[in-house]
């Protein structure tokens, strides 16, 4: 764990606003592993959809004596040709973290709500809109999808890939940061080559 906060941009969402901080009532070890499951959900589901994953990491630090803070970051390629798969991998982090809480006997309604990661949903909505696709928070827009629909896609993938997500989460918890190639090697998934346009 770092004793100082990470670079400020790590704590910002894609719009440049501070990401929400939420107290979940977990020990440091529980919260760190939960964050690793969240990031592993993003990375594994993205890779399973054929998206290039650059890296995935859990970030922990001491903002002040006696308090810890935990977050994570996954770098991957945004492919405009795969809008709903991109949105589903955005949803997969929360779903994997909630599943972790359930499997480890830590689930409560409040903790489940705390996993929401609104910044993931808003990033999906904004990036899809920039590329001409309509993703709505609570309804199905004409020619588009609702967040509930892409969460359904993600829920199926998280269930099918739970073994791989668990493997990556525990390795990330132990090693802090994993490259896409390391994730591919430990899961048997292929890390697709980067296409022109770069990572998101």
List its salient traits.
14% strand; 200 residues; 48% helix; 5 strands; three-stranded antiparallel sheet; alpha+beta; two-stranded parallel sheet
Short description:
The protein is an alpha+beta fold and about 200 residues long. The protein is about 50% helix and about 15% strand.
Descriptive overview:
Helices cover 48% and strands 14% of the residues. By secondary structure, it is of the alpha+beta class.
Q: What Rg is obtained from the alpha carbons, in whole angstroms? A: 16 Å
Q: Helix-strand pattern, N to C?
A: HEEHHHEEHHEH
Write down how many β-strands occur, each being a DSSP E stretch of 2 or more residues: 5
Average pLDDT value?
91
């Amino acid at each position: 764990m770092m004793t100082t906060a990470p670079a400020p941009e790590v704590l910002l969402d894609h719009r440049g606003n501070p990401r929400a901080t939420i107290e979940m009532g977990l020990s440091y070890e529980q919260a760190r592993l939960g964050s690793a499951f969240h990031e592993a959900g993003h990375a594994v589901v993205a890779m399973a959809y054929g998206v290039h994953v650059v890296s995935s990491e859990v970030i922990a630090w001491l903002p002040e004596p006696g308090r810890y803070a935990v977050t994570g970051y996954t770098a991957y390629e945004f492919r405009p040709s795969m809008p709903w798969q991109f949105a589903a991998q955005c949803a997969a982090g929360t779903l994997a973290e909630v599943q972790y809480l359930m499997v480890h006997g830590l689930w409560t309604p409040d903790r489940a709500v705390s996993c929401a990661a609104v910044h993931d949903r808003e990033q999906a909505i904004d990036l899809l809109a920039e590329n001409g696709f309509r993703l709505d928070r609570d309804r199905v827009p004409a020619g588009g999808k609702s967040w509930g629909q892409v969460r359904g896609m993600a829920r199926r993938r998280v269930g099918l890939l739970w073994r791989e997500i668990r493997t990556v989460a525990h390795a990330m918890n132990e090693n802090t940061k994993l490259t896409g190639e390391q994730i591919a090697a430990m899961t048997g998934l292929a890390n697709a080559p980067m296409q022109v346009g770069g990572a998101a």
